[in-house]
Amino acid sequence: MNKSLAVAVTTLMSASLVLSACGSSNGNSNNTDNANGNASTNTTNDTAANAPSNTEPANEPVAKDVTLSLRHTQIKETSKVRLKILQDVVAKTEQENPGLKINLEGIDEVVNRDQKLKAEMAAGNPPDMFEVFGGADLSLYVKAGRMLDLTPIIEELGIQDKFASLDEFTIDGNVYGLPFGGYSEGVFYNKKMFADMGLAPPKTFDELLTLADAIKAKGKTPFALAAKDAWVNGMLWNTVMERHVGIKGFEGLVTGETKWTDPDFVAGFADYAKLVDNDYFTKGALGLAYAEQGAKFLKGDAAMVFTGTWDANRFTGDEAGDLRGSVGYFSFPSIAGGKGDQTSINASYSNGFGFSSNLTDDQKAMVKAFIKNFFNEAIQKRTLLEDKVLPSMKLSDLSGVDPLISEVLQVMANASSSWKAFDAIVQPSVGADVGVGLQELIGKVKKPDAVAKQIQASQDKANKQ
Amino acid sequence: MKPALRNPWTYIAFVVPTLLLYSLFFVYPVIVSFIYGLYRWDGVSAKAFIGIDNFTRLLDDATFLKSLGNNIYFMAFSLIVNIPLVFLISIAISKVRRMRGFYKSAVFIPVVISTATVAILFGVLYDYDSGLFNQALRAVGGESWAREWLSNPHLAMLSILIANAWQNIGFFIVLCLAAILNIPKEIGEAAKIDGVDGWNETRFVTLPLVRPILFVMLLLTVSGTLKVLDIVQIMTNGGPFQSTEVMSTYMLKVGFRSMELGYGSAIGVAMFIITMAMTGILHRISRTEEVHF
């Protein structure tokens, strides 16, 4: 073989290898519609979206081609319903706006939140529309200038006052995201078991202890718990602690006004430890993943489970079996002598949609169309009925709602105030150390005051930075 | 030799693509992590240069030291328990005459299953109420024998190690078995003529001759256990209360959960250095003990 020919061929082969490797990464960042396969329309779509200009052929004046990417996390079996609603809204928006193409991309929630979206935000190339959490995540992205200010859009649509709360998405008076649902945290209980044992939902912490002892005496676990993931333990503890110190107490931690080692904080840890030491929780909880606690509750092993209302869908679904229709919900009881608001509830509207700040004007118009179709009473009602997610917008018509859901809405309406979870207040590193401390309490390896001291040390370090 | 093979450009053309990919996916990340390690950075907003603070912080970070300790425990267990076990099973399989192929595939099956699946499977086996282990223990010794495998900090690491051993020894057995079967028959026959019994044959003939493979296993074990992530992440997520935290799970938590990407990068760099030092030392040792036949 000719020498130079051989060299040329190998160079070509190796070059194509390198290029093909690069090609896939290009595809990911810009045009996700490569995968669709209908090449002819796609190319026009792309040029129109990337450079919306007057170079378009003059014979097609009506439909302007706009492409938007939409990142969602509804990929699990349990979120099928929610995905369907989203797909319907997308289809409707595309139908109403010829030339619009919305590409849905579903990935795992944790991967999106902790890795993918964060990396894209750092690099400045987030998807056009995406699911985002309000609070700490959002403020980070707003600070970096990556989020589209939605204030003018929702004012134009006249929906700015329709939301239950936009607090978590509002920064310096501007709205950067819209929640598609909310949740509250409280105690789900097995009504059948309560009736069989002659028990009623407790009003005070002492009543709760008596109740739990009675359940234990009958050979059942009072509270189902899966403690492998720290956030799960944080829920019940968070409410116990709020009863003791109040939400102002949590807010003071960051400024140094209050300390984890203050007597009322230690009392909060001690009351939580009391629940552990009395063996009210599932045995071996530290090795169980979150889904297990719902399973133990539905199987009838445990009488109660403290969790968020996002599980209401599961508790009213097929998995509930015989328990279907006999699951109730009550707010955590009050604790005598505590500084907190004793009838308050942890509720939040933090899970929502955000939009990229590098959209073109055409894309912004389409975002507006999407918002109009997604954030309205009809879709919110449908979400409530089918997905059992608490509506983020105020609804006038509540007919046909599942009994458990109306109980949940009732409890929320009766709450004297609502507050956001501790990990949205303290620094992430402190939140992580609270998780460790609670596991140490559950594992009975540390005393409440030792745990408090250790978390305060972490708080001091975080406050200094 | 063909003229094309004498042209240095031919070689460059073959090597460059690999080098490019290697630098893009290995050299560049290592350098960049080291640089990130010098900053306080949450991953999105502006970086603040803090010199080697992140690295000095590592030295008195109790959790990091604990996770390093767990990595070493992991490594020690694999070296002391797994490798002798591998050698024993390999010898045993090499001695059987019938159905050797069956045994070979049987031990290799766990290797084919993905680690995530193995981790979840063992999670089910370790379940306090309904897990196989506890059911067996209860059947033998009653309720008091049941153990909280994954939620007891003293047992959790051991539970992971057992699952890990179950999955990994198959691969090593196949390696070791190949080495044993490769030993020329004449050596074994000569030993037999000299009146050597089974134990002495294993001790003085087989063991020295498979030493190169043992070193390969040693190297793979050391580097594998220092960077172990998946099985720990899925089985315990470092818990309960960080008693099974290893360096890589801690790095992930610090970098992405606590949003301290700078410090997380520093942990990554530390892992890189520790692994490199360990494998470097092993390499040295292995080179001085070459065996030929």
Mind explaining what this structure looks like?
The complex is a heterodimer of chains A (465) and B (293). Helices cover 49% and strands 14% of the residues of chain A. Chain A has helices at residues 3-29, 39-50, 80-96, 109-123, 136-143, 151-157, 191-197, 205-217, 230-255, 263-277, 291-299, 312-315, 361-374, 377-387, 403-414, 428-442, 448-464, and strands at 66-72, 100-106, 129-133, 170-171, 174-175, 177-190, 221-224, 302-308, 327-330, 345-355, 418-419. The longest helix of chain A is centred in the first third of the chain and has 27 residues, at 3-29. The N and C termini of chain A lie far apart (67 Å). Chain A is built from 17 helices and eleven strands. In chain A, strands 1, 2, 3, 6, 7, 8, 9, 10 and 11 form a nine-stranded mixed β-sheet that branches. In chain A, strands 4-5 form a two-stranded antiparallel sheet. Mean pLDDT of chain A is 82; it is low at 17-61. With 465 residues, chain A is an alpha/beta fold. In chain A, β4 and β5 (174-175) form a beta hairpin. Chain B is an all-alpha fold. The longest helix of chain B has 34 residues, at 62-95. In chain B, α4 packs parallel to α8 (153-182). Chain B has one domain (62-285): MetI-like fold (Orthogonal Bundle). The interface between A and B is large, with 45 and 41 residues.
Q: Termini distance of chain B?
A: 31 Å
Sheet having the most strands of chain B: 2 strands, antiparallel
Element order, helices and strands of chain B? HHEEHHHHHHHHHHHH
How far apart are the termini of chain A? Answer: 67 Å
Summed up, the helix count of chain B is 14
Instruction: Return residue spans of chain B where pLDDT drops below 50 for at least 5 consecutive residues.
Output: none
Question: Fraction of residues of chain A in helices?
Answer: 40-55%
Total number of helices of chain A: 17
CATH topology label of chain B = MetI-like fold
Please describe the biggest sheet of chain A, giving its number of strands, its sense, and whether it closes into a barrel.
9 strands, mixed
Q: Would you tell me the overall average pLDDT of chain A?
A: 82
Q: Give the domain tally of chain B.
A: 1
CATH topology description of the largest domain in chain A:
D-Maltodextrin-Binding Protein, domain 2
| Global outline of chain A | globular
Uncertain segments of chain A of ≥5 residues (pLDDT<50)? 17-61
Supply the number of structural domains of chain A: 2
SSE topology string of chain A: HHEHEHEHHEEEHHEHHHEHEEHHHEHH
Family (chain B): Belongs to the binding-protein-dependent transport system permease family.
Membrane topology (chain B): Multi-pass membrane protein
Main location (chain B): membrane
GO biological process, one term (chain B): transmembrane transport
